[in-house]
Amino acid sequence: MSSHLSALLPYFISVAETGSLTAASRAQSITQPALSRKIHQLEAALGTTLFRRHARGMTVTSAGEVLLRRGRLMQIETQRAIEEIQLLKGEGKGRVTVSAGPYWCLTILPEVIAKVTEAYPGFTFDVHLAGAKPDVDAVASGKTDLYAGGIDVTYCRGLGLEVVQAAALSYIIFAPPRHPLAGVTNVEIADLAAHPWVRYRSDGAWPFIVDTIQRHADAPVSTQVSSDSLVATLEQAARGPYLMGLSRPLAGLAARFGLRPLASQPLDFQFPTGFCYGASAKDLPPLALLIEKLEAAVAR
How much is the pTM? Predict the structure, then answer.
């Protein structure tokens, strides 16, 4: 792509991401007519329409989707090149963005990131708690450097991402000591459907757990409380007559809220987990070190 077209990319990406010339013009500090001309210049140079224009805004065409995906990667690669040059000059500064599930955020990442920031004090780490849907598309687009959590290996590799698989994550059922099922040594699957649950919305394992219980018990699962906060969900589970599903490695966290695993676990929930990153991620030394430390952590 020529330097002229490359200069137009930020304007195109801004319109694509906001879906609006008005919002994009504000973000780019440019007038709306000037921005519209730049988009038309880009479309004319490429010989194709990049946007569908409609009353409620603008959406990218199939050609626009290709340019958006590649354009984002160009931006992230440019930023990484700048950061690498700064490292060579002894002025290493930059940011690494990580999206991860609760298990990774609370157990593996804190120690690993501490070691990487010690080696590269000029870099900051932006860690986001992933939602119920894995953020692998954000990694493929360059918005996120690395995702760790529940993972579909085939899907990730289809996006051209590098994947490291960890041991399957075991989920178990917790309850407060006063719950009717606490201490029961022969809990049946039907018992799990007979009591209300609390749900942590960002837990991607939840739909599978509910579906499994409902299929085996032939009865609906009642979710009485839902929350976007893990701490709020645990607090609610501790104060009410609820059941809650949580990965086994977080049993220590659940114990702080007075929750205990059921003495009898009638179902064995196992979920694939791991992390993924872009093919060029290891070109940036801090990110390469992060990957190396994560690989060592999951190998233990």
Answer: 0.74
Q: What is the DSSP string of 63-79?
A: HHHHHHHHHHHHHHHHH
Name every residue whose Cβ is closer than 8 Å to that of residue 257 and which is 6 or more positions away in sequence: 234, 235, 237, 238
Rg (CA), the chain: 24
The token pair at 233 is: 């969900």
Domains 72-167+273-299 and 168-270 share a fold: yes
**How many CB atoms neighbour CB 161 within 10 A?**
22
Please, are residues 127 and 146 in contact by the beta-carbon 8 Å criterion?
no
- Overall fold of domain 72-167+273-299: D-Maltodextrin-Binding Protein; domain 2 (3.40.190)
Structure confidence by residue, pLDDT tens digits, 254-275: 999 999 999 989 888 899 999 9
Q: What is the pLDDT of residues 274-292, one digit of tens each?
A: 999 988 888 888 899 999 9
Q: What does the alpha-carbon distance between residue 102 and residue 246 come to, in Å, rounded to a whole number?
A: 10
Residue range 178-190, pLDDT digits in tens: 999 998 999 999 9
Query: CA angle, corner 14, sides to 57 and 7, nearest 5?
Result: 130
Sequence-distant (≥ 6) Cβ neighbours of residue 262 within 8 angstroms: 172, 173, 174, 175, 181, 182, 184, 187, 243
